[in-house]
Amino acid sequence: MNKQIILLPGDGIGKEIIESAKLVLNSVASEYGHRFTFHQHAIGGDAIDQYGTPLPEDTIKACQNADAILLGAVGGKKWDSLPGYMRPEKGLLGIRKTLGLFANLRPVKGFSSLLHASPLKEDVIKGSDILIIRELTGGLYFGQPSERRENGNAVVDTLYYHRSEMERIIDKAFQSARLRNKRLTSVDKANVLESSRMWREIVEEKSKDYPDVAVEHLLVDAAAMKLITQPNHFDVIVTENLFGDILSDEASVLTGSLGMLPSASIRSDGVGLYEPVHGSAPDIAGKGIANPLGMILSAALMLRHSFQMEEEAAEIEEAVNETLEQGYYTADLHIKGGKQIGTKEMTEMVLENLTTKSVSDSICSSYA
Ligand SMILES: NC(=O)c1ccc[n+]([C@@H]2O[C@H](COP(=O)([O-])OP(=O)(O)OC[C@H]3O[C@@H](n4cnc5c(N)ncnc54)[C@H](O)[C@@H]3O)[C@@H](O)[C@H]2O)c1
Ligand SMILES: CC(C)[C@H](C(=O)O)[C@@H](O)C(=O)O
Ligand SMILES: [Mg+2]
């Protein structure tokens, strides 16, 4: 299969880990006879520096014409004092909104060799396998007005959702639950927010269309607690944009590190943007120690969700598993009796564990 893939490295460690995904995809392509063509474009702080805007027209056009998009991360201190509309994060929010990528899938499934890498007790997290489905193009992130008032002494952010925006993400969650263990937890703040009460009503309405799926409602504060005290309670979690952002970083603790979590941001026709859940990690950027596995696992999600290449996706996931089983880990993790390695070496080990070794030889030049 021929596929056009846009690479948006962005900022900080985004630039370091995107190369890992590209190498892994090239390896899979040569094994299965696919042709992946990569086109790199600017986003975030990188785009501000080059073009004076976090989301250049050229980047939008390229993404609109692509089969799928891989993104590293955006943001960093250098751009933190810019006005809101000019921040690197606006580039990411803009591409999600422009492409209509309303469904953000954040699978949280720990690898068994990392059970003791989590600060949580092994017997609490063992067996946990959660899919967080986060609404991605609405809510507080996009509502207008969002501005300072009264000479800067007051502020307003707007939480707006249209019923149709809630319906489509809730439908997606029921459909996903059907393909898994048929349990759906809807997370909201219905004891306080009108938007949550409408969300809850829609979940109740939709549940009639999916009688085989068991539904429960949890308030977000209790959900945050239960996620780390009883993670095995959950199968699929569906929630609005901001709650989903917060809960997914929290859930990453189950896997040992935020650096492990991949994500898929998709719309109904399968077009998608794939990125790790973490950010640009300015504290470790440029040191060559970033964990590339969340990025590599995001590439696997791309194969699965946008290209229907399940076997290839599973092979990448297995190569990651084997690498961890062999005891290799990056600085954000720890495996007893294992060996700490950097981004480049971790990528090399994953490549070696993929059945084909065809691109391993070229890794040094690719990183040069
Ligand atoms: N999708 C994105 O592009 C995205 C997501 C989150 C944050 N951000 C941006 O990133 C910048 C930094 O934000 P932050 O520090 O709050 O969050 P962060 O996710 O960048 O980092 C949080 C902590 O996790 C560590 N970490 C994250 N990813 C890692 C990896 N792959 N390997 C090893 N350690 C890793 C970091 O070193 C840091 O200690 C901000 O500008 C923020 O807006 C971007
Ligand atoms: C960088 C930021 C805008 C983004 C978000 O809040 O959606 C990030 O935290 C994420 O989780 O993808
Ligand atoms: Mg986040």
Automatic annotation (TrEMBL):
Binds 1 Mg(2+) or Mn(2+) ion per subunit. PROSITE patterns: IDH_IMDH. Its EC number is 1.1.1.85. Belongs to the isocitrate and isopropylmalate dehydrogenases family. LeuB type 1 subfamily. It comes from Virgibacillus tibetensis. GO terms for molecular function: 3-isopropylmalate dehydrogenase activity. Keywords: Amino-acid biosynthesis, Branched-chain amino acid biosynthesis, Cytoplasm, Leucine biosynthesis, Magnesium, Manganese, Metal-binding, NAD, Oxidoreductase. Residues 4-350 form the Isopropylmalate dehydrogenase-like domain. This is 3-isopropylmalate dehydrogenase. Substrate binds at R96, R106, R134, D221. NAD(+) binds at residues 76-89, 279-291. Catalyzes the oxidation of 3-carboxy-2-hydroxy-4-methylpentanoate (3-isopropylmalate) to 3-carboxy-4-methyl-2-oxopentanoate. The product decarboxylates to 4-methyl-2 oxopentanoate. Pathway: Amino-acid biosynthesis; L-leucine biosynthesis; L-leucine from 3-methyl-2-oxobutanoate: step 3/4. SUPFAM superfamilies: Isocitrate/Isopropylmalate dehydrogenase-like (SSF53659). It is an enzyme of class 1 (oxidoreductase). InterPro entries: IsoCit/isopropylmalate_DH_CS, IsoPropMal-DH-like_dom, Isopropylmalate_DH. It is found in: Cytoplasm. Mg(2+) binds at D221, D245, D249. Its cofactor is Mn(2+); Mg(2+). Signal peptide: none annotated.
